[in-house]
Amino acid sequence: MVAMSGGVDSSVAASLLCEQGHDVTGVTLKLWDGPSDTGCCSVADVDDAQRVASQLKIPFHVANMSEAFNTHVVEPYVEAHAQGQTPNPCIECNRHLKFGSLLEMMDRLGFDALATGHHARIRRDGATPELVRGVDNKKDQSYVLSMLNAQQLSVLHLPVGEMTKDEVRQHALQRGLRTSMKPDSQDVCFIQSGPGRRGFLEDRSQITPGHVVDRETGDVVGEVDALELITLGQRQGLGVDAEGIKRVAVKVDMKKKQIMVSTPEKSQINELSISPDSITWVHGVPLGEGVQFITQLRAHSEPVTCRLVSNRLIFDAPINPVAPGQTAAFYDAAQPDVVVGSAMVAV
Amino acid sequence: MPRPSSLREVTTPIFFDHAAGSPLRSDVALAMAEGLRGLPPNPSGSHSLARATRGVLEDARERIAAVLGVEAREIVFTGGGTESCNLALLGVMGPSAICISTVEHTAVRQAALEAASLHGVPLVELPVDSNGVLLVEKALELIPDGALVSVMTANNETGVTQPIAQLRKALRHAPRNIIMHSDAIAAAPSSDVKEIVLACDLVSLAGHKLGGPPGTGVLVVKEGLRLKARNVGGGQELDRRAGTQDVAGALGMAVSLELAQRDRESGAVDALKQRRDQLEQSLAGAHPTLSVTAQRVPRLAGHLHLTVRDCRSEELLMLLDQEGICASAGAACASGAPQASHVLLAMGVDADVARGALRLTLSTSTTDEEVAVAERALTQVLSKLS
């Protein structure tokens, strides 16, 4: 079973598996049932996936997972913003839908394996499979798959992880697949570019104005009209200090209706709390306390070295602030391409 | 990654989705190919060849009128069933309210919403019972004088037929000045809709459900009822639907309606009903998780609507597809994903149960062997999912 989003990567994943002689069925998940930039229920994407499946001469189905998507992704997204957090809905979708409900469905229907178009690799030469960064460093998506465990990886195939994006497009182009030149999706699939994140949240929850407070002096130095839209580490829209340097958001306090700001230097942090419930280990075995490993705190940020001590990540060098709700993907210190686990940044 | 099913060797899929549209019947295809041979497509013109094309169109109109028991001028050709319903709901001028049953097809529901907004009048929903049958007494209470009422002849998902004649009879007294439309699109392939046409002011039909060409439709508009065209332009179809008529399509539609009539008269529809009943009985008896929808009320001969407890429609459909059975969930969103049907919800079916809906629709072309294969396939699929 290949999860086909209607994009070029999953189209090529399906195509590669067909060419390798596998018996392939394409499935598109209908996740969001509201308006989107590609039509209601993303019909245009479904059409593209269906067209590619027909070009590949494979069966194709659309599975409706919109209720589960609402429950596990959209509602928590709105709720997290209301609490001043910055969630990553793609990771929650992967956790609950693509590698939750869809894996269960795949198993129930008797398929042997699930494939997706993610740019990451699964190494199967050891006793248990390992998740490894994709060949194309710029497109690597191991970060959004970091919550997967070895059991999930054992039935998962990521055929395009071995290719660069250019090679993927070239493959699609050579076979005349409709999606060959389709731009990559950039944003959250359920948020339209017009109203944006703000419009989406305004329709579903309260938007709270607040003061901007200098953490060092306690002075109110400005106002923002939506605390929910502030991401820790953000520098945009918070004004400049006396020296003309952009202020950095270091804390969102929904109770006091304020955000604290500081200078880029003083805003840096040396440690970060993670929620203990959210920690996953690929092989089910935690790294020992104090063992050095690498963590990546955003989809394409620079990895940093750290240690885990009492549910806190202790960094070897200071880093910029990270918003609660974000995911920390853990990589092996000795093999920096190999994912070992993940956790969510706590409040 | 070998395909899990042992039925990879299935080469010819078996079609149990006739309610979505029946494959073009060969007599229809032949008539369409031959009917306009050497003629220009446009029937409007003042030369001999346009007149010949016009002759084909009017011949088709008369043949359809004859099947339906109306005058030829009461037949308006449209571009399909949705357009027929849209023209009926939106073309009637000055209604006091738009009243539709809660189980109407989206083509009627959406057109009704728009009509209510266009005229600034209320949209009234007429409830159904747990079998999906209109509650006539309740409807009479809800329908105001001067309303446009639209109740389908039979439901496209469940096949349940509505008491149209009874409703019309009741409406002759009060409320008054009612204009009545019926969407007979699902019903026409297996039932005689003459009675419906007699009872209503407007009746919608679509070619592709009849094994006729897709993109062809008819709206029967009773003599004396004025409609405001939705398509404007050259004033074709007596100013009720502008645009060059699809003459080959009209001819195909006429032939498909005649074939449906012949199927009823020859006993083919009775045989179809027997096959449906046989499939229904064998499935209902063998699988405790499976329920037949509206089993005890009159339904279309070819419809078998089921719900399977603790199952999702898409999973049933995926496995049936692997077994070579083409079926449907009955209700899908624009992306094609099955969704809990508004029809089942209106009948009071629990949303979880509604998510396990499966619609098998047969036609007079369905054979005993195909029924047997479907029965085996469904048994296999249900045992896999249980």
Automatic annotation (TrEMBL), chain A:
<protein>
    <submittedName>
        <fullName>Unannotated protein</fullName>
    </submittedName>
</protein>
<dbReference type="Pfam" id="PF20258">
    <property type="entry name" value="tRNA_Me_trans_C"/>
</dbReference>
<keyword id="KW-1015">Disulfide bond</keyword>
<keyword id="KW-0820">tRNA-binding</keyword>
<keyword id="KW-0819">tRNA processing</keyword>
<feature type="domain" description="tRNA-specific 2-thiouridylase MnmA-like C-terminal">
    <location>
        <begin position="277"/>
        <end position="345"/>
    </location>
</feature>
<dbReference type="InterPro" id="IPR023382">
    <property type="entry name" value="MnmA-like_central_sf"/>
</dbReference>
<dbReference type="Pfam" id="PF03054">
    <property type="entry name" value="tRNA_Me_trans"/>
</dbReference>
<dbReference type="GO" id="GO:0002143">
    <property type="term" value="P:tRNA wobble position uridine thiolation"/>
</dbReference>
<dbReference type="InterPro" id="IPR004506">
    <property type="entry name" value="MnmA-like"/>
</dbReference>
<dbReference type="InterPro" id="IPR046885">
    <property type="entry name" value="MnmA-like_C"/>
</dbReference>
<dbReference type="GO" id="GO:0005524">
    <property type="term" value="F:ATP binding"/>
</dbReference>
<feature type="domain" description="tRNA-specific 2-thiouridylase MnmA-like central">
    <location>
        <begin position="199"/>
        <end position="262"/>
    </location>
</feature>
<keyword id="KW-0067">ATP-binding</keyword>
<dbReference type="GO" id="GO:0000049">
    <property type="term" value="F:tRNA binding"/>
</dbReference>
<dbReference type="GO" id="GO:0016783">
    <property type="term" value="F:sulfurtransferase activity"/>
</dbReference>
<dbReference type="Pfam" id="PF20259">
    <property type="entry name" value="tRNA_Me_trans_M"/>
</dbReference>
<keyword id="KW-0808">Transferase</keyword>
<keyword id="KW-0547">Nucleotide-binding</keyword>
<dbReference type="InterPro" id="IPR046884">
    <property type="entry name" value="MnmA-like_central"/>
</dbReference>
<keyword id="KW-0694">RNA-binding</keyword>
<dbReference type="InterPro" id="IPR014729">
    <property type="entry name" value="Rossmann-like_a/b/a_fold"/>
</dbReference>
From TrEMBL, chain B:
<feature type="domain" description="Aminotransferase class V">
    <location>
        <begin position="14"/>
        <end position="371"/>
    </location>
</feature>
<dbReference type="GO" id="GO:0046872">
    <property type="term" value="F:metal ion binding"/>
</dbReference>
<dbReference type="Pfam" id="PF00266">
    <property type="entry name" value="Aminotran_5"/>
</dbReference>
<keyword id="KW-0808">Transferase</keyword>
<dbReference type="InterPro" id="IPR015421">
    <property type="entry name" value="PyrdxlP-dep_Trfase_major"/>
</dbReference>
<dbReference type="InterPro" id="IPR015422">
    <property type="entry name" value="PyrdxlP-dep_Trfase_small"/>
</dbReference>
<keyword id="KW-0408">Iron</keyword>
<dbReference type="GO" id="GO:0051536">
    <property type="term" value="F:iron-sulfur cluster binding"/>
</dbReference>
<dbReference type="InterPro" id="IPR000192">
    <property type="entry name" value="Aminotrans_V_dom"/>
</dbReference>
<dbReference type="InterPro" id="IPR020578">
    <property type="entry name" value="Aminotrans_V_PyrdxlP_BS"/>
</dbReference>
<dbReference type="GO" id="GO:0031071">
    <property type="term" value="F:cysteine desulfurase activity"/>
</dbReference>
<comment type="similarity">
    <text>Belongs to the class-V pyridoxal-phosphate-dependent aminotransferase family. NifS/IscS subfamily.</text>
</comment>
<keyword id="KW-0479">Metal-binding</keyword>
<dbReference type="InterPro" id="IPR016454">
    <property type="entry name" value="Cysteine_dSase"/>
</dbReference>
<dbReference type="InterPro" id="IPR015424">
    <property type="entry name" value="PyrdxlP-dep_Trfase"/>
</dbReference>
<protein>
    <recommendedName>
        <fullName>cysteine desulfurase</fullName>
        <ecNumber>2.8.1.7</ecNumber>
    </recommendedName>
</protein>
<keyword id="KW-0663">Pyridoxal phosphate</keyword>
<keyword id="KW-0411">Iron-sulfur</keyword>
